[in-house]
Design brief:
The structure holds two protein chains of two kinds. Chain A contains nine helices and 16 strands. In chain A, the strands form four sheets. Chain A has a six-stranded mixed β-sheet, with helices on both faces. A four-stranded mixed β-sheet of chain A has the order 2-3-4-5, with helices on one face. A three-stranded mixed β-sheet of chain A has the order 8-7-12, with no helix packed on it. Chain A is globular and about 65 Å long. By secondary structure, chain B is an alpha/beta fold. The longest helix of chain B is centred in the N-terminal third of the chain and has 13 residues. The chains are: A alpha/beta, B alpha/beta. At the A-B interface, strand 1, strand 4, strand 5, helix 3 and helix 7 of A face helix 8, helix 13 and strand 13 of B. Strand 1 of chain A pairs antiparallel with strand 13 of chain B, so a sheet runs across the interface.
Chain lengths: 274, 348
């Protein structure tokens, strides 16, 4: 019988499958790194994994704590600088990048800067970081949204997706032809972009999720793929990889905190008793 | 686009596949560690019509021009073999009209490559040379040799040079792995910019090393594997110039070259013997040893002077402790899976 898997594992593995052999991939911390490490270990051995701090051809052995975490790697091949990382993206050498989403509109434009008024924010978010530059020039951007929201209009436009849809991204002349977001992964399903209109549509539903549950989150009349299906189940090898490499990602943040804190308290108590 | 697979091949195959007539060709090295093995192979294959970029036109430029490979030269410095009386291949070619040349300063030449490396269309350079003939005398670059723009912040006139993105770079380094991660140390000059600005890259190296050597010293990698098209192992590949950590400049061989280079006939005789007369670098070295013995080469071999090892270590390299417990949560993988099941977190 095939192994059972958690939602967090499903998300990581679904993203990992977007990385193809030979791809040059910029990873962020968390889900992207686990997905990248899994892809390289299982189906994309010739992928070049890198982080925007300037470490290239990394082979992460534990989940990194931040984007310059060379401690998480057992050796890498090239150590460069942030300036060069962005200009190599600008020159078209990056195939895949990742971006977490706070707000997204129907054409895949992203806000990660502020909720509410920019000058009197309801919630101040991290900002651009590398997101706006990477999403501008990487061939494909994989979007992930766990706590974010679909909106008709972004409160702040941080990173360019397909602008006004259709050919507007290509026509602007500012971005490599054919570049842009390739998928959006949420806790409910997988979304893709229509080839012509560049509007988001629902492509796959995660197990136990209905179309109505997804539509409830989207303020416009969301289009649904004619061949809507259920997100493919992970293989045992994929599940085992995630649990071995990133056990705390596999269980999810809530359970990780619970078990982690109790483990730390137990250890502290044991030390007191000795 | 190159992938991170095995790219090791002979100089003959690399030049045949990746260097084409009419290319903009850049010499990656800057006076030291000249990529002589690759330069000689290009001449043997009689490639023609290059626009050649060389930071300093010394040995490499002389033989390529002497070999009839170069139509146009972009450089900053031409070495004059034999002083005032001696000529140079570049000078002879300029006289007979077979070569056009564009002069830049070292900084401007390098700035063109740095702009190309980063994907910019031009680079701001220092304004002093605006008053010189470097600025006013222009050859095939014409209006595009320099342009002046107004700084949008200060209103000052700014001198700019256009980006260079050569078709192919040939470069010699100390060591590389079979995937193309190329490590070079010593005077960095414009080596990385020459390679990274180029569309194709051929790396020759003193030795091909295992990938874990690269991983243990990534700070020495100046060209990453995913940019490299071909890796050529060529011991003594820069002779008669020097490679730090491997051998010194061969002053005797260098002097003999420049003595020959003083005349067209002299250079031709030298090339017949050392370039056309030797099928590859091994044959060149064998010929050298056959003629002069191995003592001259032994005398210039580098004695070790190692860099202090840098500690790239971390506290641990697995999320799991040796006793099978996860470091943060303190559970075994079986316990973790049981808890996930109990909490209803699992699908499938």
């Amino acid at each position: 019988m095939a192994k059972r898997y958690s939602l967090d594992e499903l998300l990581i593995i679904t993203v990992a499958r977007e990385i193809k052999d030979g791809d040059r991939v910029i990873l962020g911390v968390g889900l992207p790194t686990t997905a990248g490490a899994m892809a390289k270990a299982l189906h994309a051995p010739n992928a070049t994994l890198m982080m925007e701090s300037g470490i290239i051809d990394i082979e992460p052995c534990v989940p990194p704590n931040h984007i310059a975490d060379a401690n998480s790697c057992r050796g890498f091949s090239y150590a460069t600088d942030l300036f060069s990382m962005f200009t190599m993206t600008y020159r078209g050498f990056i195939d895949v990048c990742f971006l977490g989403v706070a707000q997204i509109d129907r054409f895949g434009n992203i806000n990660t800067t502020v909720i509410g008024d920019y000058f009197k924010p309801k919630m101040r978010l991290p900002g651009s970081g590398g997101a706006s530059d990477f999403m501008s020039y990487a061939r494909h951007t994989i979007l992930t949204m766990r706590g974010g929201e679909f909106v008709e209009k972004l409160d702040y436009f941080t990173s360019p997706g397909y602008l006004e849809g259709g050919n507007s991204r290509d026509d602007s002349g500012l971005f490599p032809k054919g570049s842009g977001p390739s998928m959006l992964l949420t806790t409910k399903g997988v979304f893709r972009f229509d080839d012509t209109t560049k509007e988001l549509y629902l492509s796959k539903l995660h197990p136990g999720v209905t179309v109505d549950m997804v539509k409830k989150d989207v303020p416009w009349d969301l289009k649904i793929a004619a061949d809507l299906s259920v997100t493919e189940r992970p293989t045992d090898a994929e599940i085992d990889f995630v649990r071995r490499f990133a056990p705390t990602e596999a269980v999810g943040r809530k359970l990780m905190y619970e078990l982690g804190i109790s483990n730390a308290l137990n250890k502290a108590a044991a030390r007191q008793n000795n | 686009m190159p992938e991170s697979s095995n790219k090791v091949m002979t100089a003959k195959e690399a030049v045949n596949r990746f260097v084409h007539d009419g290319d903009h060709l850049v010499i990656g090295n800057y006076t030291v560690g000249t990529c002589a093995a690759l330069v000689f192979e290009i001449i043997r294959q009689q490639k023609k019509g290059f626009t050649l970029y060389s930071q300093s036109g010394v040995f490499d430029v002389e033989v390529l021009v002497g070999g009839g490979c170069v139509d146009r030269l972009v450089t900053t410095y031409v070495y004059r073999a034999g002083g005032k009386e001696g000529g140079s291949a570049v000078e002879r070619a300029l006289r007979d009209g077979s070569l056009e040349m564009e002069d830049y300063t070292n900084f401007q030449y390098n700035a063109r490559l740095v702009a190309g490396m980063h994907g910019f269309s031009f680079m701001q350079v220092l304004e002093g040379p605006m008053v010189t003939d470097l600025f006013s005398k222009r050859s095939f670059m014409a209006d595009d040799k320099y342009r002046i723009i107004k700084c949008p912040y200060t209103g000052k006139d700014i001198l700019t040079v256009p980006a260079a993105n050569p078709d192919v770079c040939i470069v010699h380094v100390q060591r590389a792995d079979k995937f193309g991660n190329a490590q070079y140390w010593g005077a960095l000059g414009s080596v990385a910019a020459a390679a990274l600005s180029s569309k194709r890259i051929i790396v020759s190296c003193e030795e091909i090393v295992e990938h874990d050597i690269i991983q243990s010293s990534p700070q020495l990698t100046i060209i990453p594997a995913y940019r490299v098209d071909a890796v050529v192992e060529a011991p003594w590949g820069a002779h008669p110039t020097e490679v730090l950590g491997y051998y010194n400049l061969d002053k005797m061989a260098y002097a003999m070259f420049f003595m020959s280079d003083m005349t067209g006939d002299g250079l031709k005789a030298w090339m017949d013997e050392w370039v056309y007369g030797c099928a590859n670098r091994q044959a060149y070295i064998d010929h050298y040893i056959g003629k002069y013995g191995s003592g001259l080469l032994d005398a210039i071999k580098a004695k070790p002077y190692y860099s202090a090892p840098a500690n790239y270590g971390s506290a641990y390299i697995s999320s799991w402790e040796d006793n099978g417990r996860e470091r943060t949560m303190g559970v075994t993988i079986e316990e973790m899976e049981k808890i996930m099941e109990e909490r209803g977190l699992l699908y499938g």
